[in-house]
Amino acid sequence: MSVQSSAEANATLTLDELQARLEPHDQQHLLRFWDSLDDAGQTQLSRQISQVDFGQLKTLIEGKDKAIDFGELASRATMPQAVASDGSGCDWTLEQARERGEQALRDGEIATVLVAGGQGTRLGFDQPKGMFPVGPVSGRTLFQFFADRLIAASETYGVDVPLYLMTSAATDAETRQYFEENNYLGLKPEQVIIFEQGTMPAVDASTGKILMSEKDSLALSPDGHGGTLRALDRNGCLEQMKREGHKHLFYFQVDNPLVELCDPVFIGHHLLAQSEMTTQVIRKRYPTEKVGNVVEVDGKTQIIEYSDLPDSAAEMTNEDGSLRLWAGNIAVHLFDLKFFDRMLQSDASFPFHRANKKVPHLDESGQAVTPDSPNATKFEQFIFDLLPEANNTIVCEVDPAEAFAPVKNANGAATDTPELAQKAICDLHRRWLRTCDVTVDDSVKVEINPRFAMDQTELQRKSAEVRSEIDGSMISDDRYFC
To answer: Residue 457, Cα to own-chain centre: how many angstroms?
Structure first.
């Protein structure tokens, strides 16, 4: 299932209207090749220009948006109150949290949104990252990992949990085709709602002029996962969620096959705290690990992105030598949909983050230029910048060995590779089996599909079935349970 994109919904502007829009912001060069374009090219360029907020862009180019001194911010930061993985740090038990979360799932209160706009370029994979095969035994793709978990949750709780899947211009067509050609990976077609995120133009770092990638196209890039809220609203997804009775949105990103999608304990913590935004964290493995730093400043929970945090702040320690800012964001959040409504109606806005990048573009004569060094500024927003605006926020710690195995870099890199993620999957599932009194050699690859068991507790309940399946208590060959 899909929804209409914003580009399809926008009417084209006439040449006079385009000139009137561009001239006050000194961006008339975008029409330099207008007369050489056919009708389709003019229509595309007109629609792209019509979607740019030139007033906002001018503010960003001139650096008049609110600047943040992250070093000063970090010097005042403390750790927010966190619910530990063992349940300590809150006024209810793990069992109470589980029961409340399971009830919300059974009542159809939970929807999910998957941010899947990235290509697998850093993995040496020229398709959408969600199509990357990561299953250590099965070869299942990242998309299949999430679909199987949603299918298992739907069967367990007797309700179809919807998947809102946000693509980008780079991944949209292939993602739609992949789901259609693979029967939506076992999900119902109406259960999968694919929509495209917004974009921001890249500008020349020295002049502030918007770059053009083609004569009929601006140099556009995704507006960051902070654009999720606007994209959900623009594409009618929020209204659809409310019509179908959903009250809370489970947010996750495409590169973590171990995400505990629809975990009832996490959902229960969120609901019992009456939180508008709840965030999962891990203890950072080292001070400068490339995860956002979850902190509290002036009574507000917020996240300082690793790229914004000075090393000196990242390396601050407590008296016992432990990291002062230890909580790492793993991009798993729960939102109250009423909070989204409030934010859409408020004057509060996400800050923009800047990145200096190498952006191919056309020169004044229309010739392609491939820069050797960063030449452009890209602007993006982050979803976690909603945290300071949310009420009753809580932070929930998870064990990275159970819930975090990001797939970001090609094999051979030091961290976050497919091989390391596959090892984490096998290590986790071997531990599950051992709690069922099954002996598993460390060299054996084991992968348990959530449609067989979503967690260790469910596997233990099925221990008799497991033993029957393996015909003994020793696994010496690669196995795949589904």
So the answer is: 27
Q: What is the pTM of this model?
A: 0.88
Q: Are strands 327-336 and 368-369 parallel, antiparallel or unpaired?
A: unpaired
The structure tokens listed for 122 are 């850093």
Is the sign of the CA dihedral 11, 12, 16, 18 positive or negative? positive
DSSP-based three-state secondary structure for 199: strand
Non-local CB neighbours of 149 within 8 Å, separated by 6+ positions: 261, 262, 450, 454
CA angle 461, 462, 468 (to 5 degrees): 145
Query: Distance (Å, rounded) from C-alpha 163 to C-alpha 177?
Result: 16
Tell me which H or E stretch contains 251: strand 248-253
Instruction: Determine phi and psi for 137, rounding to 5 degrees.
Output: -115, -45
Which helix (DSSP H) or strand (DSSP E) does residue 297 occupy? strand 292-297
Q: Which residues pair with 250 in a beta bridge?
A: 112, 334
pLDDT at 347: 62
Q: Does 401 score more than 50 pLDDT?
A: yes
Q: pLDDT-based confidence at 348, cuts 50/70/90?
A: low
Q: Classify 120 as helix, strand or coil.
A: coil
* Type and span of the H or E element at 149: helix 142-157
> CB count, 10 Å around CB of 87?
16
CA dist 462 and 471 (Å) reads 14
Task: Count CB neighbours of 191 within 10 A.
Answer: 17
SS3 call for 203: strand
Please give the single-letter amino acid code of residue 401.
A
Sign of CA dihedral 212, 201, 409, 373: positive
- The rounded distance, in Å, linking the Cα atoms of 175 and 181 is 10
Model confidence pLDDT, tens digit, residues 415-432: 999 999 999 999 999 999
Please report the pLDDT score of residue 7 as a whole number: 40
Q: Mean per-residue pLDDT for 124-139? A: 96
Rounded to whole angstroms, the Cα distance separating 225 from 175 reads 17
Contact 112/263 with Cβ under 8 angstroms?
no
